[in-house]
Write a structure and sequence with these properties.
401 residues; alpha/beta; 7-stranded mixed sheet; 14 helices; 16% strand
């Protein structure tokens, strides 16, 4: 029988990889209503707590009253509205680049950019742990596609030696499942030696990183010559929706002419651009949000290490707890949920086999007391899951005997 979907789904369930969508019945925030149950959530990418900010909501409402709801058409027909243009100017100024271009989603920004810049006869080199949208873009570009070892400039250098045509080096700024930073200074130096361009998807860096929230490029003091192609998403620390690419005049014009996901997609609702202009203003003006977030990160890491949890090397709001097996990660997530704490279990194929984890994400909206509650629940839940796992091992050994 062709398309035996039931068998595929059954296999996924048997491998503890089946995914279910929790139903959010409240606005984003630390305390949410999920599937009818109140939860303290540590799984949102709303890093600065702007997704439900009253001023951002007011800007969205005013934008809808002025501009209506839908974009109506693509940017190249008559869907490029005043708020879109204003936001592009503001994002260009924010990133210190000549121009910026709005996309409807981060996936589309990555897909459109890579496929517009390289094709048959060219090369695209990517970090092995890049986001799926970047990897898909590389595969679909038609360019020679190679993946270098994670954050390894020597591995990149060896692949640059074999590159042909126009060469694009692509990396996440903050790796979404590990929370670590790309070693941009070293990667950019290797790319410069071979006249390759560097593209950074800083989806998780804008907002938390940099003195003004300018992300990983600001964090490392790099510029347009180091990173010609800079991508950011607006649905995380900005708290709204969409994405942008920032770079030179020539880069943006090239994307307008050749990036198919940009050309053939209706523009985002102009009211969303109005809301993003307000969230950008708050992101830049209220540095206390980054300060508080950094204090929470330090508090969580100290507490988790005291419990004996295996943390990954992350200085960002993404704090993965490495578990290993998918079943164990799911069990720990379920134990936390029973205590009113929502933390997602991340399993293959999102992460490599044997590296299932809980992905704790912190927000400037969280309080110290809420982080302490998470730590207490983790300590109790980890003890229960560990005890259960030990009992299973001992039972299996008894059967073997």
């Amino acid at each position: 029988m062709p398309f035996d979907l039931a068998a595929r789904l059954a296999q996924r369930q048997a491998e503890d990889l089946y995914r279910r969508r929790p139903l959010l019945e409240s606005p984003q925030g630390p305390e949410v209503l999920i599937d009818g149950q109140p939860m303290l959530a540590f799984c949102s990418n709303d890093y600065l707590g702007l997704a439900n900010h009253p001023e951002v909501i007011a800007a969205l409402r005013a934008g809808a009253e002025r501009w209506g709801v839908g974009g109506g058409a693509s940017h190249l027909v008559n869907g490029h509205c005043g708020p879109h243009h204003e936001l592009e100017l503001a994002l260009a100024e924010f990133t210190g680049r000549p121009r910026a271009l709005l996309f409807s989603t981060g996936y589309m920004a990555n897909l459109g950019t890579v496929t517009a810049l390289v094709g048959k006869g060219d090369s695209v080199l990517q970090d092995r742990l890049n986001h799926a949208s970047l990897l898909d873009a590389g595969l679909l570009s038609g360019a020679r596609f190679s993946r270098y070892l994670h954050n390894d400039s020597a591995s990149l250098a060896s692949r640059l030696e074999k590159a042909e045509g126009n060469t694009l080096v692509v990396t996440d700024g903050v790796f979404s499942m590990d929370g670590d930073l790309a070693d941009l200074p070293a990667l950019c130096a290797k790319a410069r030696e071979k006249n390759a361009w560097v593209m950074v998807d800083d989806a998780h860096g804008f907002g938390p990183l940099g003195a003004t929230g300018g992300g990983i490029v600001e964090h490392f003091g790099l510029g347009l010559d180091d990173v010609p192609v800079l991508v950011g998403t607006l649905g995380k620390a900005f708290g709204t929706a969409g994405a942008f690419v920032a770079g030179s005049e020539e880069l943006i014009e090239t994307l307008i002419q050749f990036a198919r996901p940009y050309i053939y997609t209706t523009s985002q609702p102009p009211a969303v651009a109005c809301a993003t202009l307000k969230s950008l203003e708050l992101l830049r003006a209220e540095s206390w949000r980054r300060d508080h977030l950094n204090a929470l990160i330090a508090r969580f890491r100290a507490g988790a290490e005291a419990i004996g949890l295996s943390l990954m090397d992350s200085p960002t709001p993404i704090q993965p707890i490495l578990i290993g097996g998918s079943a164990q990660a799911m069990a720990l997530s379920a134990e936390l949920r029973a205590r009113g704490i929502l933390v997602g279990a991340i399993r293959p194929p999102t992460v490599p086999a044997g590296t299932a984890r809980l992905r704790v994400t912190l927000s400037a909206s969280h309080s110290e007391a809420q982080v302490d509650r998470l730590l207490l629940a983790l300590a109790e839940s980890w003890q229960r899951v560990s005890s259960s796992l030990l009992a299973e091992i001992e039972a299996e050994e008894g059967d073997d005997a």
